[in-house]
Amino acid sequence: MPDTVTATEASPTGTLDGDYDDAAGYYTPGTPLIDTKAPDGPIADRWQNRKFEARLVNPANRRKLSIIIVGTGLAGASAAATLGEAGYNVKTFCYQDSPRRAHSIAAQGGINAAKNYKEDGDSVHRLFYDTVKGGDYRSREDNVYRLAEVSTNIIDQCVAQGVPFAREYGGLLDNRSFGGVQVSRTFYARGQTGQQLLIGAYQALERQISAGTVSMHSRHEMLELVVADGKARGIIARDMITGEIQTHLADVVVLASGGYGNVFYLSTNAMGSNVTAAWRAHRKGAYMANPCYTQIHPTCIPVTGTHQSKLTLMSESLRNDGRIWVPKDQADCDKDPRDIPEEARDYYLERIYPAFGNLVPRDIASRAAKYQCDDGRGVGPEVDGVRRGVYLDFADAIERLGRDAVENKYGNLFDMYARITGEDPYTVPMRIYPAVHYVMGGLWVDYDLQSTIPGLFVTGEANFSDHGANRLGASALMQGLADGYFVLPHTIRDYLADGPFEPIAEDHPAVVEARESVQGRIEHFLTVNGERSVDSYHRELGNIMWEYCGMERTEDGLKKAIDLIRTLKDDFYRNVKVLGTAESLNQSLEKAGRVADFFELGELMCIDALNRRESCGGHFRGESQTEDGEALRHDDEFAYVSAWEWAGDDESNQMRAPVLHKEDLVYTAIEMKQRSYK
Amino acid sequence: MNLTLKIWRQPDAASAGAMHTYQLADVSEDMSFLEMLDVLNEQLNAEGEDPIAFDSDCREGICGMCGLMINGEAHGPEVTTTCQLHMRSFSDGETITIEPWRSDAFPVLKDLVVDRSAFDRIIQQGGFISVNTGSAPEAHSVPVPKDDADRAFNVATCIGCGACVAACPNGSASLFMGAKITHLGLLPQGQPERDERVVNMVAQHDHEGFGGCTNIGECTAACPKEIPLDVISQLNKDLRTAIRHGH
C-alpha cells in the first residue's frame, strides 16, 4: 500500500524545545559516531570505488581463512554459498532442522529490482529515492543507493539458479507494482516469492556443502560471541539435540540471524525467531541501532484467544477492493455483520482520509484500527475484555466485479482466511487487525556491514541500515540477498586481507569466559524451579510491549512499560519453571534463554522510543502529531541513528543505563521532505 | 471440547518409546493443532512432567518444519500442514493418536521430533543448478515459456516436510525427489546437469534407506502442497534417459 510515494509533499513543520529530554535518566549520552566508512565522491560511484579499494585475498590464502555465519535465511545462505565458492572455509549455523526452513521462506509479496523492464520511468536512482523517502529519511543514504544498484544483479542470479519467477507469454519476466509504488519493479513467484528465493539460496548453499567448502550445523543455537583481543573470533553454540556446549573459532563472524519481532510474543514471525545471537553480540560491544523501529501490518488475522501462538499476515493487496468498517454503535458489535444496515456502519478510513480511503499507508491504517477497538467498537471474539478486530468487507466488490473476479484476484487469501477462522469471507466480512511484522532496527553496521566489534559483520534484517523508520513492500528480500550475494563478500575480503590471523586457543580467557557464561545461564534456568512457565512470561512481556511500545507510544506509557518490564524480569529470574535437563533436546530451556534476552531488548526498545520524541515511519509518538492527528517528524532534532552501547548489568540482572551514540544522517543526493496524506 | 490424547513419548534417539495417554479439557475449535499441544504442554509443565517435544516454526504452512501422524494420517485428516490444521476438524470426546513421522530414514530424536537431514543430503547430490554468484547472464537473455515456468513453479512449491515419506507404505521419498527433478528439468538452466542430477539423487535416496516407489499414491494424497504424482513418472523417465546416455 502507499507507504509514502504517492503522498503530496509539504515542508517540514514544528520545532521542539531542545532542552527537554523525555529519556533523561534512562541513558547516558555518548560520543557521536562519525566514521561510517562510506566513500566520498558522487553517490553513483561510491560502491564501485569501495569494491576497487577493498583489498584482495589470493585464492591460495582463502582456504586458510575461516568464516562463521549464524543464520541461513536469505542473507546467511547467500553469503555462505558465495564465500564458499570463493574458496574460504565457511561454517554455518541455524536453529532449524534444515537451512531451508529459515523465516525468509514465509515472505509472500515479491522482490524489488530496478530493471526497468516496463520502461515506465524506473531507475536505480528512483528505487533509491523511493526507499529513502519510504523510510522517512531515517536510513543511511550510501547503503540505500548501493542496495538499489545491486538489485538488478539479484534477479539475474536467481533466474540462473532456476527460481521460477512469474513470466509473460513471450517467455520474459513479469513485474507488478507493489506497496503503492508507481512503477512496476516487483518480481514475484505467485504469493510465495520468499520461498522460491530461499530455496534458490539454499540449493546454492547445499552445492557448497557437497563441495566441502561449507559445513552446516543445523539444530545449533549461538548462545555467546567470543571477542578475543578486541576482535570477534568465534561463537559458543549449543547442539540442541545433545545439549553439548561447543566452541567454534574462526577469523571472522557474520550474524545473519534475522529480526526480533517476537519480543511482542504475538507477531507474524516464526516461532523460533529470536534476538539471542544479536543480543549476545550487543552485550559484547556491538551497538544496537534504532531498536524501536517496528513495522506493523494492518491486514493480519485477529487474535481469537489466549491460546494464540502467532499471527498470520494476509497480503495488503486486499485493501485494493475491501472496505474497512466498524459498527457506529457499540451495541452492534456482537451482531452478525450482515444484519447491520449501511447507515449503522462507520467506514472510518474513507471518512477520515477521503483522498486515500482504505489505501492509506500501513501505519495510519493500523493506528486507526486500534483507535476504533480502544473506543469499544471492535468486532470478533472478546480477548481479555476487548474485541480486537475490524471488518474488511468484500460485499461491494463482489457485487461490482462478480464473485469469479474476486476469486481470481484473492482466492488463495480467502481460502487461507477460511481455513484459519472457519468463516467464509465470500459471505461474511473478513476480520483484520494489525500485527508486528518486521523490525527495521538491528545491530549498527558501517558501510562495510561491520559492527562496532572488529570482525563481526551483520547482514539482512539483523542489521539496521537500509530501511530507516519504515520498510517499503518487497524490499526485505532485496536487502537479504544484496547483502549476502553482492555486498558482504566484497567488504569482508578487505577485513580478511589482514590475515592470516593469530590462532586462538580454546583456553583463551575470552573463550573460557564465554563458555562459562553460557553454562551459568543454563544452570540458572534449570535450578530456579519456580512456578511459572517460560511462555507465560513471554506472553506477559509481549502484552507490555504491544500496549506501550506498539502502534502508538507516549512518554507516560513508555516509562510505565520500563517499570513493568523490570519487575517482570526480576520475577522471571526468581520464579521461572524449566523442567528437563541440559544434556538433551529441551525446548523450554531454549525458550528461557531467548526470553531472558527479549526482556533486555524490550527495555532498550522503550528507552529508544522515549528518546525519539518525534513520529516517523513505524514510530508514532502520541506527543508529536499535527492538529489532524498525522505523524509529525522533526528533522531538525532527530535526523540521526540512535546507536546504543551496552553498559553492563548489576547483580540482580537489571541493565545499567545504556549509552547513546548518535550518527547524524546527512543527505547529499536527496532532499528531505515531510509527508502528508490529506 | 474435551479430548483424550495418545501421544508417542521417547526421551531420545537411543531409548525405547511408548504411547502415553493425556486428558485435555476446554479445547477451543479455533486453536490450531499445534496450539492445542502448546496448551497441553503448559498443563504438563505445571504438573511437573516434561513437556512434549515437537517441531514447528513458521506456523503459516510454508516452512515445512511441523509434521505429525494424526490418527495414522500424515498431517491429519485435512490436506494441509499440521500447523494449519484446526481443532474444528475434531469433535468433543474424541480420542486422537499422535505419533512422529514413520520412516527408518527419519529417526526419532525425541517424542515427536524426527531427523529429516536425509532430504538435505539428497539435494546436495545435485538438487541445484551450478552457477557461481556474479557469473549469471542478464535475466532476459534466457526466455522460458510461460507454461513451463508455471509448471516449474507448481512443483517447486514442495516444502520438504516429509509427509510423502511418512504416508508411503514403502517409505519412499520419490515425490520429494521427483518434485525437484521436475522443477529443474523444466527450465533451460537445468539441462546441462540433468542426467547427472537424477542419477546422483536417486543413489543418495537409496543410500539413506528410503524405499522404492510402487505407485501407490499415498504420497500425493498426503502432500500439503498437492505435488502431483506425475513428478515420479518424470523422475523415472529422466533416470531411464540418463542410463541410456551411459550414466
From TrEMBL, chain A:
Cofactor(s) needed for function: FAD
Region Disordered, residue ranges: 1-22
InterPro entries referenced in this protein's UniProt entry, alphabetically: FAD-dep_OxRdtase_2_FAD-bd, FAD/NAD-bd_sf, Fum_R/Succ_DH_flav-like_C_sf, Fum_Rdtase/Succ_DH_flav-like_C, SdhA/FrdA/AprA, Succ_DH/Fum_Rdt_flav_su, Succ_DH/fumarate_Rdtase_cat_sf
Domain (FAD-dependent oxidoreductase 2 FAD-binding) ranges: 67-477
Main location: membrane
EC number in record: 1.3.5.1
Catalytic activity line of the entry: a quinone + succinate = fumarate + a quinol
Composition skew (Low complexity), residue ranges: 13-22
GO CC terms: plasma membrane
Protein's GO biological process: anaerobic respiration
Topology in the lipid bilayer: Peripheral membrane protein
Superkingdom of origin: Bacteria
Keywords: Cell membrane, Electron transport, FAD, Flavoprotein, Membrane, Oxidoreductase, Transport
Compositionally biased intervals (Polar residues): 1-12
Active site location: R362
Domain Fumarate reductase/succinate dehydrogenase flavoprotein-like C-terminal: start-end pairs: 538-677
Pfam family for this entry, one: Succ_DH_flav_C
Family, as annotated: Belongs to the FAD-dependent oxidoreductase 2 family. FRD/SDH subfamily.
Protein name according to UniProt: succinate dehydrogenase
Species of the source: Nocardioides oleivorans
TrEMBL record, chain B:
Cofactor or coenzyme needed: [4Fe-4S] cluster; [3Fe-4S] cluster; [2Fe-2S] cluster
Biological process annotations from GO: respiratory electron transport chain; tricarboxylic acid cycle
Domain of life: Bacteria
Keywords: 2Fe-2S, 3Fe-4S, 4Fe-4S, Iron, Iron-sulfur, Metal-binding, Oxidoreductase, Tricarboxylic acid cycle
A GO molecular function held by the record: metal ion binding
EC number(s) reported in the record: 1.3.5.1
InterPro entries registered for this protein in UniProt: 2Fe-2S_ferredoxin-like_sf, 2Fe2S_fd_BS, 4Fe4S_Fe-S-bd, 4Fe4S_Fe_S_CS, Beta-grasp_dom_sf, Helical_ferredxn, SDH/FRD_Iron-Sulfur, Succ_DH/fum_Rdtase_Fe-S
Residues in 4Fe-4S ferredoxin-type domain copies: 149-178
SUPFAM superfamilies: 2Fe-2S ferredoxin-like (SSF54292), alpha-helical ferredoxin (SSF46548)
Similarity section: Belongs to the succinate dehydrogenase/fumarate reductase iron-sulfur protein family.
Name of the molecule in the record: succinate dehydrogenase
Species for this entry: Nocardioides oleivorans
